[in-house]
Amino acid sequence: MIDPSVKIPVENKNLFCRDLPSQPQPGLGKVLVTGASGYIGGRLVPELLARGYQVRVMVRRASPIDQELWPGAEIVVADALKIDQLQKALAGINTAYYLIHSLYLGPKEFEAADIKAAVNFRKAAARQRIKRIIYLGGLGDIRNPLSSHLRNRIEVAARLKRGPVPVTILRAAVIMGSGSASYEIIQHLVRKAPFLLIPHWAKSKCQPIAIRDIIKYLVGVLEIPQTAGQNFDVGGQDILTYEQMLKIWARVLRKKRIFISFTFGCIPFYAYLTSLLTPVPHFITQCLMEGLKNEVVCQDNRIKKILPFEPLSYKKSIVLALSREEQDQVSTRWSDAYPPAHELALKLHELKNGPDYTARDSLVTDKKASALFRSICQIGGREGWFHSNWMWWLRGGIDRILLGVGSSRGRKSHSRLKINDVIDFWRIEDLQPNKRLLLRAEMKLPGRAWLEFTIKEKTQQRELAITAYYQTAGIFGRLYWYLFIPFHTFIFKNLIVQIEKRS
Ligand SMILES: NC(=O)c1ccc[n+]([C@@H]2O[C@H](COP(=O)([O-])OP(=O)(O)OC[C@H]3O[C@@H](n4cnc5c(N)ncnc54)[C@H](OP(=O)(O)O)[C@@H]3O)[C@@H](O)[C@H]2O)c1
User: Which end of the chain has the smaller Cβ count within 10 Å, N or C?
Assistant: First the structure.
């Protein structure tokens, strides 16, 4: 029954669930979305809000832009590794989406963290007597030896199910959509490599699904109560080998590529190579590529009778994703989740004794603050760093070789920036229009670093300044700072000159 007192907002043509065969149930009670800062959760929240649900969004760190991102949603701060925080997040909730994943912790640590989070969640959900959990995990046949990533996704489902709260489990393979890690990996490989090596495991079968279809299934099962406590496999129209997926991409991008079958199948080697050619860092490529040796195809298609809509073909899903990218309309990206709650996310103003080292450069100009700020906001991504780009590129390359995030992550949007967005190897910590842009370094460093751009009003003029902050605990950190001072002085000075010129 639709609660007549709840207003269902007007249709937005960017929403995926407009043609969903199920009916919105806004009277259901509060719906919690965990993992909302992640790729899937970030796309689910606007759909639920648009269908009139009362949504509580769980994040690990509140950000000034949360309300702007999810207008009308209640924001709760909780870490799934801390059960008392989960209890608060789950109080008064009817249904909770479980979209927590810790892949960014890397191959050695993510498994234990994900299991602990799932066990905590199950316990807290039982104590708060919530009605349902909906979890999106991974496909894979447990009778075969699975990669650690796929095994972990299945284990999380099993742990959630051990409690009294009914869990709906959706199991999906690769998700294709603008901003998804798999989408960016394949696209960059096809764009950049003139020939592609095809090891035996690239011939395993996979049933990719479009992001819009995943969101439709996630919302659809919420609206169909008989799906509570059940498992469903969800997939797109096509069952393809990874080799076929690469070939379809090459046709869509009109790239002539040579595919070479290769007997050497060492996954860490391919994962490393892939991380050098794509924006996705090594710890993610490694986890994802290990799963390529497993077949990930839907074993049952019951969901199609319950939610009768035709999922997209692989080709259609990539064409749609590419057009979103071309229109600069990518709303969430794999890089969003990494690593805001990580220890690296310590904010500049949270440093107990302030940064150990500071280097500053400035100039005074007649240009308007708005023009200067617009120009600052163009940095990174495909625009580069306005001067001595090769030095930035070299620093990013070294970082990638050291298994860091590198600078090829680029930007999610070429025209807009918001707090927590990635710019190459930085992440935006603070953004105050026409006043300040503060970037936190995420590259490998013997310390922590920030880069700040500020604009200050002076009588009739503006002061544009760039300040590097650095905090280090050890001798290597200090050496690093002194060694790089000449480069930094040169780069930063030229950078603000260019910002001023372009504004
Ligand atoms: N993306 C795909 O291609 C794909 C394919 C198949 C299945 N799935 C499944 O879909 C689900 C969501 O995936 P995703 O791609 O959206 O992941 P994601 O982008 O990596 O997001 C993971 C989310 O989990 C949150 N998180 C991690 N540890 C947490 C903790 N201790 N407490 C609270 N929150 C925590 C992160 O928050 P922070 O921002 O604070 O780190 C982030 O919001 C996963 O179960 C995944 O297996 C995804």
Answer: N
